[in-house]
Amino acid sequence: MPLTDLFIRKLKYSGKPSGDKYSDGRALYLLVRESNKYWRMNYRYEGRHRTLVFGTYPEVSLAEARALCSEAHKLLRAGTDPKPRKKPIAPEPEQNTFGTLALEWLSKMAVTRSEVTQKKSLGWLQHDILPVIGAMPVASIKPRDILAVIQRVEARGAIDSAHRMKQLCGQILRYGVAIGWTERDVTPDLRGALVAIPRTNFAAITEPKHLALLLRSIDAYEGHIVAVSALKLTPLLFVRPGELRAAEWSEFDLDAAEWRIPAAKMKMKTEHMVPLATQAVTILRELYRVTGHGKFVFPSLRTEQACMSENTINAALRSMGFAKDVMTAHGFRASARTILDEVLNERVDLIEHQLAHRVIDPNGRAYNRTAHLPARRLMMQRWADYLDKLRAGADIIPIRPLPGGGQL
Q1: Active site residue 267
Q2: Is-catalytic flag, 210?
Q3: What string of H, E and C letters represents the secondary structure of the chain?
């Protein structure tokens, strides 16, 4: 069975004089001794048994060891002995590898990027990028090396991810240029090498009568209280799906009817205030009885140490019969934006503030995070009341201003 980082970290030396061997496959194994954990690969060349030493763990990661093993097999297939006569095949500790650069860059970005974005980048690096080019010296990376990574991703149908990984590699390489590890970012040379991303907006229901049907479907949805509560709060709060599912109880003041989302979780890196309508507070108080003892408002059903899966809301919508080209979790933001403006005639600047979009004042400066908060509270309550009427089947007449300032 292939090794994992978690398994390797837990390994302890048994005391066996020859050391403990743990195979990863393809002749690569980890030799555990009292002093260290050594990466090795056994092979035969010209009829003789030989051993390659790739360095020690964790200085040489599992992904890097596998990449070195793959490179050694390529040399053997070409009839070349992969074992150098004077120096090991593993990069010297001072060698500036792409893997080292990538992790250093990611660490620096933690200050300015959301936790969700950081996790996404780390996942791409660990699963797709570093196993292929992580052990390569940054200065030696060519466009074809990056292409080899992203074409594998493209081949499994993940077109958008392939483009995002190319962008990620470019950001890392540009950081490498800035600190003198390489001369240039080679990713611009790959322009046109990937299939274009189909450009589509998040599917959203923006007609009140169709939204009414969706709200009634949500009301009838049978599932775990965590998923049901998240479904009911999504149209009420219209925050980004990632912000909702990662919500923590410490961020809420239900007595004050407020939810303060920390800057680290926000796309714009600014704390965001969400006034809570009475309907939202009621849902949250009921949910608190179930999940209030833990950290997350919407914990995973598998472990309370993690939040709800990013697919939970969309999966529920699919199960209710709303296809992905009809409605998505993110689409509730567009629903609110359109109906608040075109039907309820709410002020556009209040809507944009509540969507956590950047709003500029007449002097060209960004409003602070608490701008127009009393007016936003009233708007959020009007929105919740409107959704109640829609759900109940009331005929909602669009409110339009008359020339004299009255309303129809």
Answers
A1: yes
A2: no
A3: CCCCHHHHHHCCCCCCCCCEEEEEECCEEEEECCCCEEEEEEEEECCEEEEEEEEEECCCCHHHHHHHHHHHHHHHHCCCCCCCCCCCCCCCCCCCEHHHHHHHHHHHHCCCCCHHHHHHHHHHHHHHHHHHHCCCEHHHCCHHHHHHHHHHHHHCCCHHHHHHHHHHHHHHHHHHHHCCCCCCCCHHHHCCCCCCCCCCCCCCCCCHHHHHHHHHHHHHCCCCHHHHHHHHHHHHHCCCHHHHHCCEHHHEECCCCEEEECHHHCCCCCCEEEECCHHHHHHHHHHHHHHCCCCECCECCCCCCCECCCCHHHHHHHHCCCCCCCCCCCHHHHHHHHHHHHCCCCCHHHHHHHCCCCCECCCCCECCCCCCHHHHHHHHHHHHHHHHHHHHCCCCCCCCECCCCCEC
